[in-house]
């Protein structure tokens, strides 16, 4: 019975929190929700990890309406994932975002899980995308003895590869023909609250190997 009460309480906290949120926003700006209801025009597409400690708006100090968001385990851009590709297509072609950010984070459970041979279930097939990155950079990674540091480096390398995956899509390459569209790779530090920009530069299709460039 007590458990049930605790469950009710932890659930109700969210509903109460929502009321506070709505009130405080309307207190600051009575038109806040009215303006938002007119439509969205975000400049940024955020591709981040599902991890509860990396909330996209909070860590970038942005408001509702500013970020179009896709999150999955370990912030992957897989070229067979209809979900991420649909989000990307809408963000680029309809919303016409100016920046796409892939934001990984240190201490990522998905990254750590990909670094061993344990079986976890369906997620292992998803994590194969990270194992591919590991395999590509295995010499560099295995030279790092400390497993935490190795995971940190794999996190960075994976972000670089995910940004590259964006550049390999027809969606992004088509957009580049018409307008500037900047791709960014970031890593968020859960222990510092700070973002490191990995300075991955892909602003035109000439930045990627020829085999990935489409004749548009
Ligand atoms: Co993560």
Q: Could you characterize what this model shows?
A:
This protein has 216 residues and is of the alpha/beta class. The chain has 2 domains: 1-39; 40-212, Beta-carbonic Anhydrase, Chain A (3-Layer(aba) Sandwich), CATH 3.40.1050. Helices cover 49% and strands 13% of the residues. It contains 9 helices and 5 strands, in the order ααβαβαβαααααββ. It has helices at residues 2-28, 32-36, 56-60, 82-94, 109-114, 123-136, 138-142, 147-167, 170-178, and strands at 44-49, 67-72, 99-105, 182-188, 195-197. A 5-stranded mixed beta sheet has the order 2-1-3-4-5. The chain is globular. The mean pLDDT is 96. Residues 49, 51, 74, 105, 108-110 line the site of cobalt (II) ion.
Topology overview:
Elements lengths: L1 H27 L3 H5 L7 E6 L6 H5 L6 E6 L9 H13 L4 E7 L3 H6 L8 H14 L1 H5 L4 H21 L2 H9 L3 E7 L6 E3 L19
Parallel strand pairs: 1-2, 1-3, 3-4
Antiparallel strand pairs: 4-5
The site of cobalt (II) ion has 7 residues, from helix 5.
